[in-house]
Amino acid sequence: MRCDQAQELITARLDNELSGDEQSAIEAHLDSCERCRRAMAAESRLKQRIKATQREIVAPAALRREIENEIASRRSAVAAQADGGFATWFNLRGWRPAFAVALLVIGIATLLYVRAPQQDLGAVALETHRNLLSGTTTLARYEDANRLRAELAGAVGNRFAPIVFDLSAMKLYPISGFVQKIGGRDVLVTVYQGGGPAITCFTFLGTEADAPNGAERFYDADMKLNFYSFSRDGINGVLHQEGNVICILVSKLAPAEILALLRGKSSHA
Amino acid sequence: MDSIYSLGYTDWAVSVADSRNPVHDPFGMEIMTHLDHLYRVAIHLVRNPDEAKDCVQETCTRALSSQGQFLPGSNMKAWLTRILYNFFYDAYARNKRTVAADDLLDGTDGADFWEAQAGDGPGPEVRLLERELGAKIGAALKQIPEEFRAPILLVDMGDFTYAEAAEILACPIGTVRSRLSRGRRLLQNHLSSYLGKSGTDR
């Protein structure tokens, strides 16, 4: 191989983009060519320098604000459009009886649905945690845990607030949160990340009947509380009730470890 | 405090949350996480920070209007970058409003931004050297033709694979590879007086 032919392979080698054949060919050439080894070292340094120095460039704050505003105004425009559409539809005279019937059907269906145990909540919580781990769900990060808590509570009209744990002993901190609709209910999701395995906390209005079928129940005599543990594909959830709020902690930690954490917890509901 | 708090996008997370119904807009929030990347690419494509800002703004507007075309779970960063490049080609490259490589040989175009980058605020000496090097690289990138610059912006700066860069630029993977190789060499030549011939001096 000539040195000019090696150049492109050196580039691809630095980017881990070589095929098997190319890999052995360029290794053989590099073994025998000091000039190309030096060229590769220089190119590698250049690549690192580009990456390191250009990371310093960040979008100006004014640009961020403008785009945030655009996102917010589009959301409200979409909401207004939805409202307008409904009003127009409702004002068509012939539709009103149909609307009344539809309301009745929805009412009965909701009643049946509410009375049925919400069995999918636990499974959705495990799935959400998995998506968070895999990075499928993107998070906005918060620095201030109190502010995060206040904003999450505000998002559900302060009907309830997320339970916040002090997991700093495990080097875990509440870094983000969002509202998730599961089975028609608002669920506040708080994400703890840091040094150890991530923990996601789900809080919502409910009862122990929300524990998934087949969950194992533990009664803690000291705390006078039931804990329900359930798992799927290596991800574990532990559910318990505090007043009218249900809390599910989900993690790759063993159920016993999550339980120990809840028993020794420092939380405020 | 743990390093997770110093990621730098806390401000927008809070300010997005201050607006009407933020927690429910994961699409908008994900766009915000790629803003620095988009701006970084744009600043190397166009003439000055104002144009880069316009470029990113238009990219986000187009992305928000085309939300239905985005496949949830697919690579949003690549999708946004493709939109940015499409806009750049439409609005700048075809109209030659951008700086042609030849025009840049006098080394003055866009120099203000890079000088500002180099001298932006006091800091430890190492940081100043880093900034100076960053400014030199930025100015040198402006001096190489767009076709060779694009793979550097995408692969070295944007962490895209060759396949992703090829999709964004609508060209074969082999073209990305050969242009990247050539581009890095051109860049090295432009930086040689600063870094030394072998790139080892500083």
Could you write a compact summary of the structure shown?
The complex is a heterodimer of chains A (269) and B (202). Chain A has 8 helices and 9 strands.
Return the string of H and E elements of chain B: HHHHHHHHHH
Total helical elements of chain A: 8
Annotation, overall tally of beta strands of chain B? 0
Sketch the major β-sheet of chain B: none
Strand content of chain B: under 5%
Gyration radius from CA atoms of chain B, angstroms: 18 Å
Strand content of chain A: 15-25%
Q: Mind telling me the C-alpha Rg of chain A?
A: 27 Å
Cα shape of chain A: elongated
Biggest sheet of chain A, strands in spatial order? Answer: 2-3-4-8-7-6-5
Q: Biggest β-sheet of chain A: count, sense, barrel?
A: 7 strands, antiparallel
- As residue ranges, the low-confidence spans of chain A are 115-119
Individual helix count of chain B: 10
Mean model confidence by pLDDT of chain B: 74
Secondary structure layout plus pairing:
The complex is a heterodimer of chains A (269) and B (202).
Chain A: H1 3-14, H2 20-32, H3 34-54, H4 61-91, H5 95-115, H6 120-134, H7 145-155, E1 164-165, E2 172-182, E3 185-194, E4 199-205, E5 216-220, E6 225-232, E7 235-242, E8 245-251, H8 255-263, E9 267-268
Antiparallel strand pairs in A: 1-9, 2-3, 3-4, 4-8, 5-6, 6-7, 7-8
Chain B: H1 10-18, H2 26-33, H3 35-45, H4 49-65, H5 76-93, H6 111-118, H7 125-142, H8 146-157, H9 162-169, H10 173-195
Question: Could you explain how this protein is built, in words?
Answer:
Chain A is an alpha+beta fold. Helices cover 49% and strands 22% of the residues of chain A. Chain A contains eight helices and nine strands. In chain A, the strands form two sheets. Chain A has a seven-stranded antiparallel β-sheet, sandwiched between helices. In chain A, strand 7 (235-242) and strand 8 (245-251) form a beta hairpin. Chain A is elongated and about 80 Å long. The model of chain A is unreliable at 115-119 (pLDDT under 50). Chain B is mostly helical and 202 residues long. In chain B, 65% of the residues lie in helices and 0% in strands. Chain B contains ten helices and no strands. Chain B is globular. Chains A and B meet through helix 1, helix 3, helix 4, helix 7 and strand 2 of A and helix 1, helix 2, helix 3, helix 4 and helix 7 of B.
